[in-house]
Amino acid sequence: MKAIYKKLLILILLLPFSVLAQNTVGGTVFDKVSGQPIPGVNVNVQGTNNNVSTDFDGKYQLSNVKKGDKLLFSYVGYANSIVNYDSQKSLNVSLEEDSNQLKEVVIQVGYGTVKKKDATGSVSQISAKEFNKGINVTPESLISGRISGVNVTGGGAPGAKADIRIRGGSSLNASNEPLIVLDGLPLSNSTPSGATSILSTIDPNDIESFTVLKDASAAAIYGSRAANGVIVITTKKGTKGGVKVNFSSQVGVNTVANTVDVLSTDQFRALVNEKGTNAQKALLGTANTNWQDEIFQTALTTNNNISVSGALFDKLPIRLSVGNVNNPGILKNTSFERTTTSVSLNPVLFDNHLKIDINGNLSFGKNRFQDEGAIIGSAIGFDPTQSVYSANSRYGGYFEWLEANGNLPLLPARNPVARLNQDERRATSTRKWGNIRLDYKFHFFEDLRIVTEAGIDRFDSSGFTEVSTQSALGYQPNAFSSGSWVNLGNYSHYTDALQNKNLNSYFNYTKDLGKFKIDATAGYNYQLFQKEKYESGELRQPTPKEDVATDPVINLQSYFGRLNLGYDSRYL
Fold first, then answer.
1. Half-sphere exposure of 421 toward its Cβ, with a 13 Å CA cutoff?
2. Residue-wise pLDDT tens digits, 495-532
3. What is the third-level CATH fold of 22-100?
4. What is the rounded CA–CA span in Å between residue 368 and residue 299?
5. In angstroms, how far is the first alpha carbon of the chain from the final one?
6. How far is Cα 482 from Cα 480, in angstroms, rounded to an integer?
7. Residues ≥6 apart with Cβ < 8 Å to 304
8. What is the helix, strand, coil percentage profile of the chain, to 5?
9. For residues 125 and 152, what is the distance between their CA atoms, to the nearest angstrom?
10. Positions in the chain short of pLDDT 50
11. DSSP letters along 373-429, please?
12. What are φ and ψ of residue 142, in 5° steps?
């Protein structure tokens, strides 16, 4: 028994020493060549989960380090550095650039690729690992805040278009939208009626990377269309090896973060009683209505995607993907739903001399809109002493301001809840797009390649706007009876179609001549844009109107070329 007590006493005495053996080390990580601090370097105790990252000044502080531990310093583009910890209080480290990594990193530019070390223009690339996490309904949200010089400003409506600005706006009257190239297919910035944006039909789960060309030298090969920069989107491709199945399911809760601060019912009533006229006081109601609570809701967003990738017969890389997102809006009676399917085939033939990329995509969308500005504006300014409903109302049972003769006045706002429920705006869209790319390296002259791409993008939509015959919005002065109003309601329908066809072919020649390196590209591009819209409006009016609008066909044909001449891997 005494022996046990002695062992316990020894353990208790040794415990403080074992605690004291856990040390803290700090220091700064520098670039070995420039001597500048490197932010974001990962500092890790090898074999453990104990790690930190350097701050903006390249400084770090790592706790719970024991003598004999190995500290691993790692950063993209730099060679890893391993340092043995020997109870130092301060440990500064210099990292060397990893030339092998820089040579391997390839970025997509206009009609070709370059190694990162050879890119002289301002080019930024972000891959799937660096995308924003969480529920990303549209692709724009993947890169929001992730690329320097690129500002993404989203809207609040479900599936709303986000404004992308590369290094700010450059025009007062013309468009500031960048050119978007999807798997080699330059897209039109036009969207059909009833669709939210040109990117809203693309499932973010299918995107592999974004490459942003920011300056003139990087974007010039696309001509004047690239005046606001270029965004090159690459989707995921098939891979060699066994079949892999990925399934993801996300659920998110959307709530109103803040409402406009307005007077409460009691404050509003007190203000009118103190400052208002007798006529204004007589208009006060007896209800207690928070109109912003009446039009907003908490909504659940779901996002599901399943993909299968692998190689058929061990030779044909293929990827199949199906996704669905359902995004109800926080403004009632608004929603965005999208179902997408995509297939990608990527065979390599003739002893790696011919590479073929084929991708096809199909997207179905359903949108439900509202006149957000008018409804939210009405909710902010509407009288909180009035109730939402009125038993004697001829406007679908909703309260509305009336004149003494029972007619609707022109100036007061309409009941925002009535506008939500009596104004129906719906649209459906179908988009089909795809591209085929042939990249052939000549057998008899392997320094020369020919690349041919052909793609098509067809975007169809249809929708309607219907105002109830009981809605105050549908009442109009009766042209046949002075002083009276008539409610004919309102109904309008439209169909819209956009089509974009693209064909380009170019030669690429690369050759190392001693210390010189030549990279030359020359080719031809053909692109055709077509648009047609049919509208039939006010079918309940005495004189319905119909209109078919066909925009002029736009045909772009271009010859382009680029020459890069490098010397000694130092000058270009």
1. 14
2. 999 999 999 999 999 999 989 999 999 999 999 999 88
3. Immunoglobulin-like (2.60.40)
4. 14
5. 82
6. 7
7. 247, 248, 249, 250, 323, 324, 325
8. 15, 45, 40
9. 16
10. 13-20, 479-481, 539, 542
11. HHHHHHHHHS-TTS-SB-TT-SSTTB-----TTSPPPSSSPPPHHHHHHHEEEEEEE
12. -65, -30
**Could you tell me which residues come within 8 angstroms of residue 129 by beta carbon, excluding any fewer than 6 positions away?**
none
Tell me phi and psi for residue 342, to 5 degrees.
-145, 150
The closest alpha carbon to 215, from 144, 132, 148, belongs to: 148
| Cα-Cα-Cα-Cα dihedral sign, residues 130, 132, 134, 136 | negative
Q: Where, residue-wise, is CATH 2.60.40.1120 in the chain?
A: 22-100
- CA nearest to 350, candidates 288, 441, 274: 441
Alpha helices in 254-297 (DSSP H): 265-275, 278-282, 291-295
Bridge partners of 83, per DSSP, are: 71
CB 330 within 8 A of CB 256: yes
* CATH 2.170.130.10 domain span(s) along the chain: 102-235
DSSP code for 214 = -
User: Where are the alpha helices (H) located in 397-524, listed in sequence order?
Assistant: 416-422
Q: CATH for 102-235?
A: 2.170.130.10
For 423, phi then psi, to 5°, come to -120, 105
Write down the pTM of the prediction: 0.77
The predicted structure's pLDDT at residue 220: 85
